[in-house]
Amino acid sequence: MQGTVTMPSAATDGLQAMNEDLRPRNTGLPNSPTESAIYEQVALKLLMTRVATLNVNGVNGRLPVLLKWLSETHYDIVCLQELKTSDERFPADAIRNGELDSPR
């Protein structure tokens, strides 16, 4: 059909499985076409994970820049490269809380 986008069967099967997993159980209510469309939209959003990678080039020295970037972007997964710090000095709390603190 013209104007139709078809998905590979693996993606379609994954959507169907997610759709089934997201359906409320034991509600006693029939699933309407509208409910099915809503579940399918949620499943599609779950399949679209946004991943970013950033070369920090020294996390402690560039922490303000990193925190600003993290607050302005909304990625699901962020991979940081070139941290150039030890585990003990990594500013995990500052990144987790989105605020500056002094490195250990």
Low-confidence stretches: 1-7
Tell me the number of helical segments per DSSP (H or I, 4 or more residues long): 4
Widest sheet, order of strands: 1-2
- Classify the secondary structure makeup into a structural class: mainly alpha
SSE order: HHEHEH
Task: Tell how many strands the DSSP assignment holds.
Answer: 2
Give the radius of gyration. 21 Å
Shape: elongated
Helix share, percent: 40-55%
Please report the distance between the alpha carbons of the first and last residues. 62 Å
Tell me what the structure shows.
- With 104 residues, the protein is mainly α.
- The protein has helices at residues 9-22, 33-47, 63-72, 92-97; strands spanning 51-55, 77-81.
- The chain has a two-stranded parallel ribbon.
- Strand 1 (51-55), helix 3 and strand 2 form a beta-alpha-beta unit.
- The radius of gyration is 21 Å and the shape is elongated.
- The protein starts with 8 loop residues before the first helix and ends in a 7-residue tail after the last helix.
Features:
4 helices; disordered N terminus; 104 residues; 2 strands; mainly alpha
Topology of helices and strands:
Layout: H1 9-22, H2 33-47, E1 51-55, H3 63-72, E2 77-81, H4 92-97
Parallel strand pairs: 1-2
Helix pairs in contact: 1-2
Give the structure's gist in a few sentences.
The chain has helices at residues 9-22, 33-47, 63-72, 92-97; strands spanning 51-55, 77-81. By secondary structure, it is mainly alpha-helical.
